[in-house]
Amino acid sequence: MVALKTIENDTIVKSNKLNEALFNLSSIEYKLVLYIASKIKKADKDFKTYKIPVREFTQAIGVKGNAYHKEIENISEEIMSKPIKFVDEEGFQISNWFSYIRYRRNDGYIEVRFDANLKPYLLNLEGNFLQYTFRQISSLKSTHSIRMFELIKQYLVIGHRIIDLEDLRKMLDVEDKYKRYSNFKQRILLRAIDEIKGKTDLRFEVEEIKKGRSVQKIKFYDIKFMEAEFNSYEEAFVTDTPLEEKVKNAFFALGVYIREDDLKEITSYPEMVVQNAMEQLNNKMRSGSVNYPVSYLKGILQNLHDAPEAMESSVYDRLCKAICDTYKGEKGTVPGWLIEETAKSVLKIDLKIEDEEQMNSIWSQFGKSIIQQVNKMIEKNRRLGKK
Fold this sequence. Notes:
By secondary structure, this protein is an alpha+beta fold. It is built from 17 helices and eleven strands. The chain folds into four domains: 1-124, Winged helix-like DNA-binding domain superfamily/Winged helix DNA-binding domain (Arc Repressor Mutant, subunit A, Orthogonal Bundle), CATH 1.10.10.10; 139-228, Winged helix-like DNA-binding domain superfamily/Winged helix DNA-binding domain (Arc Repressor Mutant, subunit A, Orthogonal Bundle); 233-306, no CATH class; 310-386, no CATH class.
């Protein structure tokens, strides 16, 4: 049994299928589910039974006093009586959230264990899935707000999401309520949007997509975090931190969870190669055609390893572009030694290569061609200046 004393590690990671499943929980019931989910560790191969002080949970959601000690029995019974439903092309699957809830009143804590049927959606995840922290949603009062936060956050990397109105109604559990769109908009949609923007750092715009005069779909676009530490993988790589931290932060910015063994494998490659592979992954993910981002990145790295010329080409392209950008407005002669100094500065600052012997080797390989490119650019600038 795992006893929990802090909420420092409160990251929630769950599959997109779980995020889009159908269920009917109150906000306090759903927060309890999410709070337990935040205690799952990356290396867990099976669900554990967690021992959680009720007071710890109430503090995490900002509730003072002992009121929920009296309510915990009702909350537990409600969760156990409200299953989760997964719908796919073949039919559906109905599962319980928990296989076990034990409340020890005198000691003031509960013991909880997730149902085994949820393993594929919470453990050993590989591919596109949702990741955020419990603190980001802890102040939201409405289940609708939490659900919309999750559905919008899921598409952070792509930057926009279009949801069929009927699908949105189902996922918000209001399929049979507020039949008129105007009522749904006022009572559910706008209230949830206002609460998300007022109590979280998630930002987005909303557009109604109509067919004739009837709203058919809702588009959420310009999705971003107002004060996120890293909004893109590029930002993660310009920090002065170890490569392991950069890669973890880059994947976090992409909304992807990475296991420790995968992290070790990826960071065994040179940083400039990993950054180039991450750029390729980001471009592919924006097209929406990557099912397993971590495996895809590892494949790119393996290809670069198997084809050294591709790796060398990547270094040359980035180095040449950076140097040409430095002298793009120049019309006078730039001596070769100055271009070499600029190149070594780029290698050290941008490509994180600090070994003098390695820098000399790269310049020996690419220097002549880069100097030629700079001189061609300067000659072009001169010609344009005479016109």
